[in-house]
Specification:
220 residues, alpha+beta, 4-stranded antiparallel sheet, 4 strands, UCP028451, CHP02453
Length: 220
Protein backbone atom coordinates (compact mmCIF):
# COMPACT_ATOMS: atom_id res chain seq x y z
CA UNK A 1 0.00 0.00 0.00
CA UNK A 2 0.98 3.63 -0.29
CA UNK A 3 2.24 4.99 3.01
CA UNK A 4 0.69 8.01 4.69
CA UNK A 5 4.08 9.76 4.71
CA UNK A 6 4.21 9.52 0.91
CA UNK A 7 0.95 11.45 0.65
CA UNK A 8 2.13 13.91 3.31
CA UNK A 9 5.39 14.52 1.43
CA UNK A 10 3.48 15.37 -1.74
CA UNK A 11 1.09 17.67 0.13
CA UNK A 12 4.03 19.63 1.52
CA UNK A 13 5.77 19.67 -1.86
CA UNK A 14 2.70 21.34 -3.37
CA UNK A 15 3.08 24.13 -0.81
CA UNK A 16 6.88 24.34 -1.11
CA UNK A 17 7.74 23.62 -4.73
CA UNK A 18 11.27 25.01 -4.74
CA UNK A 19 14.78 23.60 -4.77
CA UNK A 20 15.76 24.68 -1.24
CA UNK A 21 12.80 22.91 0.37
CA UNK A 22 13.22 19.83 -1.83
CA UNK A 23 16.92 19.45 -1.03
CA UNK A 24 16.19 19.86 2.69
CA UNK A 25 13.62 17.07 2.36
CA UNK A 26 15.53 14.88 -0.10
CA UNK A 27 15.57 11.93 2.29
CA UNK A 28 11.77 12.08 2.62
CA UNK A 29 11.53 12.13 -1.17
CA UNK A 30 13.73 9.05 -1.49
CA UNK A 31 11.63 7.22 1.11
CA UNK A 32 8.42 8.15 -0.72
CA UNK A 33 9.89 7.08 -4.06
CA UNK A 34 10.96 3.71 -2.65
CA UNK A 35 7.40 3.24 -1.38
CA UNK A 36 6.05 3.93 -4.89
CA UNK A 37 8.59 1.55 -6.44
CA UNK A 38 7.64 -1.21 -3.99
CA UNK A 39 3.95 -0.63 -4.75
CA UNK A 40 4.68 -0.73 -8.50
CA UNK A 41 6.67 -3.95 -8.15
CA UNK A 42 3.72 -5.63 -6.46
CA UNK A 43 1.29 -4.18 -9.00
CA UNK A 44 3.42 -5.43 -11.91
CA UNK A 45 3.38 -8.94 -10.48
CA UNK A 46 -0.42 -8.92 -10.45
CA UNK A 47 -0.80 -7.23 -13.85
CA UNK A 48 1.48 -9.72 -15.57
CA UNK A 49 -1.01 -12.41 -14.58
CA UNK A 50 -3.85 -10.37 -16.10
CA UNK A 51 -2.15 -9.01 -19.21
CA UNK A 52 0.41 -11.22 -21.00
CA UNK A 53 1.35 -8.22 -23.17
CA UNK A 54 3.26 -6.73 -20.23
CA UNK A 55 6.95 -7.58 -20.62
CA UNK A 56 8.22 -9.87 -17.87
CA UNK A 57 11.53 -7.95 -17.93
CA UNK A 58 9.84 -4.64 -17.09
CA UNK A 59 11.65 -2.89 -14.22
CA UNK A 60 9.41 -1.16 -11.68
CA UNK A 61 12.06 1.54 -11.12
CA UNK A 62 11.88 2.49 -14.80
CA UNK A 63 8.08 2.62 -14.66
CA UNK A 64 8.16 5.35 -11.98
CA UNK A 65 8.50 8.63 -13.81
CA UNK A 66 10.98 11.38 -12.89
CA UNK A 67 9.68 13.95 -10.42
CA UNK A 68 11.82 16.68 -12.00
CA UNK A 69 9.91 18.89 -14.46
CA UNK A 70 11.24 20.06 -17.82
CA UNK A 71 10.65 23.79 -17.47
CA UNK A 72 12.49 24.94 -20.61
CA UNK A 73 9.34 25.63 -22.61
CA UNK A 74 6.84 26.04 -19.79
CA UNK A 75 5.43 29.19 -18.24
CA UNK A 76 5.19 27.25 -14.97
CA UNK A 77 8.73 27.30 -13.59
CA UNK A 78 8.12 25.15 -10.50
CA UNK A 79 10.92 22.56 -10.66
CA UNK A 80 9.08 19.46 -9.42
CA UNK A 81 5.96 17.54 -10.29
CA UNK A 82 3.53 17.44 -7.36
CA UNK A 83 2.75 13.79 -7.97
CA UNK A 84 4.31 10.40 -8.64
CA UNK A 85 3.44 9.02 -12.07
CA UNK A 86 3.78 5.35 -12.96
CA UNK A 87 3.65 4.24 -16.60
CA UNK A 88 3.31 0.53 -17.34
CA UNK A 89 3.61 -0.08 -21.09
CA UNK A 90 2.49 -3.12 -23.03
CA UNK A 91 4.16 -4.76 -26.02
CA UNK A 92 7.67 -4.02 -24.78
CA UNK A 93 9.41 -1.88 -22.22
CA UNK A 94 8.87 1.54 -23.79
CA UNK A 95 5.81 3.75 -24.24
CA UNK A 96 4.18 4.08 -27.64
CA UNK A 97 1.31 1.64 -27.43
CA UNK A 98 -1.52 0.95 -25.00
CA UNK A 99 -0.46 1.21 -21.38
CA UNK A 100 -1.64 1.41 -17.77
CA UNK A 101 -1.01 4.63 -15.87
CA UNK A 102 -1.12 5.20 -12.13
CA UNK A 103 -0.84 8.63 -10.52
CA UNK A 104 -0.40 9.42 -6.84
CA UNK A 105 -1.38 13.03 -6.18
CA UNK A 106 -3.13 14.27 -3.03
CA UNK A 107 -6.78 14.75 -3.91
CA UNK A 108 -6.11 13.99 -7.58
CA UNK A 109 -4.91 10.38 -7.80
CA UNK A 110 -6.10 8.11 -10.59
CA UNK A 111 -5.71 4.83 -12.43
CA UNK A 112 -5.97 4.83 -16.21
CA UNK A 113 -5.28 2.80 -19.29
CA UNK A 114 -5.52 2.90 -23.04
CA UNK A 115 -3.61 5.12 -25.45
CA UNK A 116 -3.31 8.86 -24.78
CA UNK A 117 -2.77 11.09 -27.85
CA UNK A 118 -1.41 8.49 -30.31
CA UNK A 119 1.04 9.70 -32.93
CA UNK A 120 -0.38 10.21 -36.42
CA UNK A 121 0.26 6.77 -37.91
CA UNK A 122 -1.00 4.99 -34.79
CA UNK A 123 -4.08 7.22 -34.68
CA UNK A 124 -4.83 6.37 -38.28
CA UNK A 125 -4.47 2.63 -37.59
CA UNK A 126 -6.74 2.80 -34.52
CA UNK A 127 -9.40 4.69 -36.46
CA UNK A 128 -9.23 2.10 -39.21
CA UNK A 129 -9.68 -0.67 -36.63
CA UNK A 130 -12.70 1.16 -35.22
CA UNK A 131 -14.16 1.57 -38.70
CA UNK A 132 -13.74 -2.14 -39.41
CA UNK A 133 -14.54 -3.57 -35.97
CA UNK A 134 -16.49 -0.91 -34.07
CA UNK A 135 -18.78 -3.50 -32.52
CA UNK A 136 -15.82 -5.09 -30.74
CA UNK A 137 -14.88 -1.76 -29.17
CA UNK A 138 -18.47 -0.86 -28.32
CA UNK A 139 -18.93 -4.22 -26.60
CA UNK A 140 -16.02 -3.28 -24.31
CA UNK A 141 -16.89 0.35 -23.57
CA UNK A 142 -20.65 -0.17 -23.28
CA UNK A 143 -20.33 -3.03 -20.79
CA UNK A 144 -22.18 -1.86 -17.63
CA UNK A 145 -19.28 -2.42 -15.23
CA UNK A 146 -16.90 -0.55 -17.57
CA UNK A 147 -19.30 2.40 -17.70
CA UNK A 148 -19.75 2.30 -13.93
CA UNK A 149 -15.99 2.40 -13.37
CA UNK A 150 -14.90 4.82 -16.08
CA UNK A 151 -17.95 6.71 -17.31
CA UNK A 152 -18.75 7.44 -20.95
CA UNK A 153 -15.68 6.55 -23.04
CA UNK A 154 -16.87 8.86 -25.81
CA UNK A 155 -16.64 11.95 -23.60
CA UNK A 156 -12.97 12.57 -24.26
CA UNK A 157 -11.39 15.28 -26.34
CA UNK A 158 -12.57 15.02 -29.93
CA UNK A 159 -11.70 16.68 -33.22
CA UNK A 160 -13.94 19.62 -34.00
CA UNK A 161 -14.14 18.47 -37.61
CA UNK A 162 -14.63 15.05 -39.16
CA UNK A 163 -11.43 13.10 -40.00
CA UNK A 164 -10.96 13.43 -43.74
CA UNK A 165 -10.98 9.67 -44.34
CA UNK A 166 -14.54 9.40 -42.99
CA UNK A 167 -17.95 10.95 -43.52
CA UNK A 168 -20.02 12.84 -40.96
CA UNK A 169 -22.85 10.31 -41.25
CA UNK A 170 -20.64 7.37 -40.25
CA UNK A 171 -22.50 5.59 -37.45
CA UNK A 172 -19.31 5.51 -35.35
CA UNK A 173 -18.18 9.08 -35.98
CA UNK A 174 -18.20 9.86 -32.24
CA UNK A 175 -15.49 7.22 -31.77
CA UNK A 176 -13.60 8.11 -34.95
CA UNK A 177 -13.27 11.74 -33.84
CA UNK A 178 -11.55 10.86 -30.57
CA UNK A 179 -8.01 12.16 -30.08
CA UNK A 180 -7.27 9.73 -27.24
CA UNK A 181 -8.60 6.32 -26.24
CA UNK A 182 -8.35 6.30 -22.47
CA UNK A 183 -10.34 4.87 -19.56
CA UNK A 184 -9.58 6.47 -16.22
CA UNK A 185 -10.91 6.38 -12.70
CA UNK A 186 -10.15 8.86 -9.90
CA UNK A 187 -8.82 7.42 -6.64
CA UNK A 188 -9.30 8.91 -3.18
CA UNK A 189 -6.27 9.23 -0.93
CA UNK A 190 -7.83 6.79 1.53
CA UNK A 191 -8.13 4.13 -1.19
CA UNK A 192 -4.35 4.21 -1.66
CA UNK A 193 -3.76 3.66 2.05
CA UNK A 194 -5.74 0.42 2.22
CA UNK A 195 -3.84 -2.84 2.70
CA UNK A 196 -5.51 -4.29 -0.39
CA UNK A 197 -4.89 -1.18 -2.54
CA UNK A 198 -2.60 -3.03 -4.96
CA UNK A 199 -5.10 -5.81 -5.64
CA UNK A 200 -7.95 -3.30 -5.96
CA UNK A 201 -6.04 -1.29 -8.55
CA UNK A 202 -5.00 -4.43 -10.40
CA UNK A 203 -8.68 -5.40 -10.53
CA UNK A 204 -9.53 -2.05 -12.13
CA UNK A 205 -6.74 -2.57 -14.64
CA UNK A 206 -8.28 -5.94 -15.45
CA UNK A 207 -11.35 -4.07 -16.68
CA UNK A 208 -9.11 -1.90 -18.89
CA UNK A 209 -7.28 -4.92 -20.31
CA UNK A 210 -9.77 -5.68 -23.16
CA UNK A 211 -9.49 -2.06 -24.32
CA UNK A 212 -5.70 -2.32 -24.43
CA UNK A 213 -5.94 -5.56 -26.41
CA UNK A 214 -8.23 -3.89 -28.95
CA UNK A 215 -5.88 -0.91 -29.33
CA UNK A 216 -2.74 -3.03 -29.63
CA UNK A 217 -4.41 -5.28 -32.20
CA UNK A 218 -4.97 -2.19 -34.32
CA UNK A 219 -1.21 -1.61 -34.29
CA UNK A 220 -0.14 -5.19 -34.92
Amino acid sequence: MIQRQTIDFLKELIENNNRDWFMANKERYETARENVIAFTTELLGLLQKIDPQIDSALDAKKCVMRIYRDIRFSKDKTPYKNYFGVSIPTKGTKAGRAEYYFQISPGNSLIAGGYWMPEADHLKAIRQEIDYNANDLKKIINEPEFVNLFGDFRKQEQLKSVPREYSADNENIDLLKLKSFVAFRPLKDDELLLKNAVSDIAGICGKIYPLNVFLNNALA
